[in-house]
Amino acid sequence: MTDLLFLAFAAVAIGAAILAIEARDLVYGAAALGIAFLGVAGLFFLLDAAYVGWFQIAVYIGAVVVLILFTVMLVGPKMGETPLGLKRVSLLAAILVSLLLGMTGALANATAFPGQDSCGSGCDLALFSTSLLKNYGVQLEFMSLVMAAAVIGALALSKTDRGQ
Amino acid sequence: MEPLSSFFAVSVILLGIGIYGLTTKRNAIRILFSVELIYNAANLNVIAFARLRNPPIVTGQVIVLFTIALAAMEAAVGLSIIILVSRLNAEIDLSKLSKLKG
Question: Are A38 and A57 contacting, i.e. CB atoms less than 8 angstroms apart?
């Protein structure tokens, strides 16, 4: 059962990721990106990280994909990509990706990483929230500060001087 | 339970797709897609590695929570820059943007 679910989620994530990069229309690309995020969230659920999975769905699909869709609509649908003239760059990309895929093959054969049937205390939500607020409270506050700065910066960047 | 190496394999494939998009695409929004895919690969890797210890630890999930928040901020700032650039230049082909070149 878990094997089947894993295969389904992995196939959805990888296929939708390829579609997001290669789709001709940017709107379809953004939708495929959302589906890829959904697949990765499913993998999080399989790893017993349910809270992170829901967070991924809320933030990525609820916020990031919608933001991207709005930007695609604002910037306009006509942004045809010029075909890549640089042969060397695509060669480099092909070499890098095939190296990574070779690493994947090596990993798939590795038996050094056994799966654990039950996560136990490592995935307990109460322990997770205690650790988040107790051990990482300062980091959490810093994160909210950085988030406020980023949002204000984004607003200041895209502000138009229409009054003058 | 699937062995953890298959989760690492999915993560590596997502990273490969992201790097491919970063090197071959020129549209700024498409490059943002690639960066988000690489973020997802890293998050998956961290969560899977947190399961590797016996007993598993929650620190991996906390770190991934922070990473997701950071990725959302990065997307917000990047998209506002893209809107600004498209207003100034009428196109967002990154290979044609040379305003900051000395």
Answer: yes
